[in-house]
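User: Could you walk me through two proteins back to back? I'd like the raw sequence and the structure tokens for each, with a short line separating them so I can tell where one ends and the next begins.

Assistant: Of course. Protein one, sequence then structure:
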Amino acid sequence: MKAAVLYEQRKPLVVDDVEIEDPKAGEVMVKMVAAGVCHSDLHFINGMWPAAVPMVMGHEGAGIVEKVGPGVTALAPGDHVITAWVSPCGACLTCMIGKPYLCMTALLQGATMWDGTTRLKKGSQQLNHQNQVSTFAEFAVLPASGAVKIRPDMPLDRAALIGCGVMTGVGAVFNTAKVTPGSSVVVFGCGGVGLNVIQGAALANATTIIAVDTLDSKLELAKQFGATHVINSSAGDPVPQVLALCGGLGAEFGFEVVGKPSVVTQTFEAIRPTGLAVMVGMPPAASNVVISTLGLFLNKTLTGSFYGEARIHIDMPMLVDLYMAGKLKLDQLISGTYPLEKINDAFDALKTGQVMRSIITF
């Protein structure tokens, strides 16, 4: 099969012929239909995050179950699924305390299957899996717990977006912050995930939704997704404007969706006493954030949201239903589609900052 392989960080992906093994116990093989091109993938490619090279890339996708391994009863060939990039084991500490999105087994063993081996190879060379899934390939083998069955009338090229960007953004609103009706929200960063935070806030019936970005084109999109006010932060510190729009005190909920420590600080400064700031973006692992101790005394809270605190088998079908009911915007997120052979072109487009989501179609 064809797959996009990262053989060396800071080098382009190589679309190569690779072999894939049949699923083993507790695993499924999915024929990929579509995969999203995400900034997280770019972080692996450009060396911002460590990568277990050589690795077949991709973590956001949807497809059709091709085969199931021994012991798999919840899925069958022909089922339509979204692939999740955290496949909960159900047995580790974080799974058992009700936080499967932080499954330590999956996160620490994400380059291989549960048995420590891979299902991918190029000749005699073993290839690793990105997040146990590797969606930039014609087929993917992953733990069955990470394949989320969805209704068959859902377009799979739209469903692919739910696998990461939509779940991360909307989940940060619904699951992490639990935004309340009538509340005020500020969102720093209006890329693919930021737009989903904005539409999540709109779905939660927040009445003041402030979008902050440096590009007017993204701010115009933010209005389509539910922003009631927009601020171009290239002109200066946006925090005073946010405070003014929220009665001088700040927003009740703030979301950082850029991945910069300085923007995390701005988000914390832009919320009111007793407010909640949520870091959704992923700054470099070694970076630090500076926040006001006075803000802490005023009961401000700063927290992180990992994968939108997803309950994948509950939340992803719910998001599908919202799209099919015309309440969740997915079509507007897609900036373009590419065949697998043009995947490096899709990443070049992503680097410009103008692209929301590109889709690889098979």
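----
Protein two, same layout:
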Amino acid sequence: MALRFMDSFDHYATGDLAEKWTSNAGGHTISAGTGRRGTAGLKGGGGLFKTLDNQATWIIGFAFRPKGAFSGPSTIIRLRDTGVAQIDLSLNTNGTLSILRAGSVALTGGSSTLSLSIDVYYYIEWKVTIADSIAASSCVVRVDGVDWITVATGQDTQQTTNAFANELAIVNGPTQAADFDDLYVLDGTGSAPHNNFLGDCRVDALLPNGDGSNSAWTLSTGSTHSTLVDETAPNDDTDYITTSTAAARDSHNFANTPTMTSPTVYGIQHCISARKDDAGTRQIKSLLKSGATTVTGGTTYALASTYTYYQQIYAQDPNTAAAWTTTAIDALEAGVENQ
């Protein structure tokens, strides 16, 4: 499977949710200090939606902490087909978990016997294939590395006429308050290690802390490029870098990864907050320099007139064509190339 999206909830504010996600239907907030390591987390309370593409299989992992008292039942995560619910992962009033087609249809083998506890963080992973009759082990929920739900072979996880989902929704609340952190999303393509549960993962946000080897963009103020793009939450037009020159590049050094013991790195996601300031098409690409190798990400992004996050996944180190190491991440540069 391919790594498609991740979120630490640490590098932007509540007002920016609809810039990184497709839309925020209200109620979800970025909350300081509620993450698993004292950093920010997402506080549930409405509908937060991410448009993806048509894929039959998805794997979603996230840290989850129910708050208050159990109420509901309450959907935690929903996979949709263009706005229509295909399949839900739900929390019941006794703390157990259930898989429900279209948010209401129970499936054989689709409920856990084990229960969550209030005010405890768990790492929940959900692998599901959308189909009228699923194969064995095609819909599984794992909590802290243990399988809690395995939906029976032949069950129907497909509500619409399409055997895929193309939207991810965090819809927890308002019936059940909860915190979220350390989210990853895989789709049904690719190869190991992105072809099954990744296990309990942490997602760390690293911010620019120095100028790199490319400094061709114009500064809104001052003489240091990185200080104009290093905010914990984007400050939009307060300070920025800009260019109208084709192929102009600007790259930056980043803070080091946190100290960890022999970590496995599954990929990095470069996030760029940008907008265009004139009529016509304006495009950028993610720029990454690792060791002696400089690459531009595979996606060319056509900029909107309002600030939006553009995200490029690098599952492997382009300098080695192998898994990332923290040493390589600590030495990389990332930035933008105008198209």
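The first strand starts at residue 3 and ends at 7.

Let me know if you want the two compared in more detail.
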